[in-house]
Amino acid sequence: MGQSARKFSLGMIAAIVLAAAPALGLAAASATGSAPAGVAPAADNSADVIIGTFTVDGNSTAENPLGGRLVRNIAPPCQDCDITSVTPDLTDVDGNSVNMDTGPMLHHIVLYKQGGTDVTCPNAVLSSTLGMQRLFASGNERTPIPAVPGYALHVGPNEQWAALNDLMNYAPQPITMQVRLHVTWVPGSQLKPVTPVWLDETTCGTSFYNIPAGPSQQTMTWNSTIDGTIIGIGGHLHEYGIDLQTTNVTTNTPLCDSKESQMQMSGGLVMVTAMSRCIGQPPSYIAPLHKGDQIKMTANYDTPAPQSAMGIALIYVDTSAVVSPTPAPSATPTMTPTPTMTPTPTVTPGPGPTPTPVPSLTPAPPSLVHYDFALNGSTSIKAANGTAPLTGAIKAIYNLGTKAFSADLTLNNTTGQFSIFGFLPVTAGIGFKQTGQTTGTLDGGVLTTDSKMYVTFSSFNVFGFFPIGGGADCATSTPITVQLKSTSPFFNPLQGGPIAGTYTLPALNNSCGPLGWLISGFSAGAGNTLGATLTPAA
Hints:
It is a single chain. This protein has 3 helices and 36 strands. The strands form 6 sheets. The chain has an 8-stranded antiparallel beta barrel. It folds into 2 domains: 12-363, no CATH class; 368-536. A hairpin with a 4-residue loop joins strand 27 (386-399) and strand 28 (404-411). By secondary structure, it is mostly beta strands. Residues 1-25, 27-43 and 325-366 have low confidence and may be disordered. The two termini are 30 Å apart.
């Protein structure tokens, strides 16, 4: 990140995020409600949801290449209710807000609904593979969602959330901090639900692209797949952004010009403090939206040096009502107040002259996601007519661009129960030595893996106590290749699932004792099976 502190550089996240950023808000008439267990109540129909407590090392100021710390299975503050506002915060363990003047920075938080489909990228890897709908995102400016009377984000029965948190620490010493969301709601389905539409300059990519020094401009278009009324629009840029413009090309209607405000801090740091947003007024709000309308988004920057950039717009749509395609009143941008920080910052004006387009912008490398799984299952060795339980762990790095992954597989030592000649019971001590990383793909909800390893046999005991072979160096003469595939209709890495496959067990080496040839004869061969369940690690 160098000398710059970004508002919320989502990395892979912006592609993983689909909904409201500090862009737009939702609100309703007052109502009462109570917070469920595990959520700290703040007042009637409101609560502070503690996403997690994290200790961040000193001088941790680089963007997280894996997007941040993922927390799953978060209980919303209510069920079957309408969320009217969300205000993110970074606090100490006592609930006091902390900020960059003392070290901590909320680089970003992204809130998801576990399950759902994006409007703009329903078949992208992040939507189809991860099975999450993006609900809210914010950076260190911690802008709350302001009120749009009559509208809300609806929470369904038994809904659960997930959150991706990227935290930084500009202080030299480690600091323990908490990510919190202050949420207000009304029970039931009293308000109109909004449909969030996420526009991204990388379309369905990872949101990052690289820009040169000086003025630059990047444009994308989206052909609408829904009908409705646009009630609000907000934007997101990195530091040194100028504005983010959205236009309905089909109707030649300007929709929103979201302008950036920045804060110059000590040490040359630049922080985005606000993006203006456009909130329409009833009855026609901002503009109608029809299927097939071409929506154009343009991101303008003027930077002192090359850097990574984003251009993201969130459009809130009421799909229950489509107004006639007549000119809509201009939406009035509303500026978020600029926070006061120590030392006293110098505020840099946000809007600037229209930059000169730069013809070529290089996409940034695809982002990576880190997944850890526990493994539990069993293997069956056909020639030995027996089975052995399997336990272990997988630590995987998944490339969102290529849909491929590499992983460190650990299988624990186990004990197998087999038989010689079909009737003589043999107990075998079994171990595994992986020869390289496990590789594979996760594409369209189908997981495939490829692992290579030696199988070791520390002991072979007839009737469980009479040794006939094995030893510290007893192993297969060559590595086995185990290819596994998910067996559920859709493998979601946030939930895990079953995998299965077959493999061939090679002959044993010459270090298995005088009866090694016999042992090899009743163990080696094809048609062996392995089945296991992957469960996300805590």
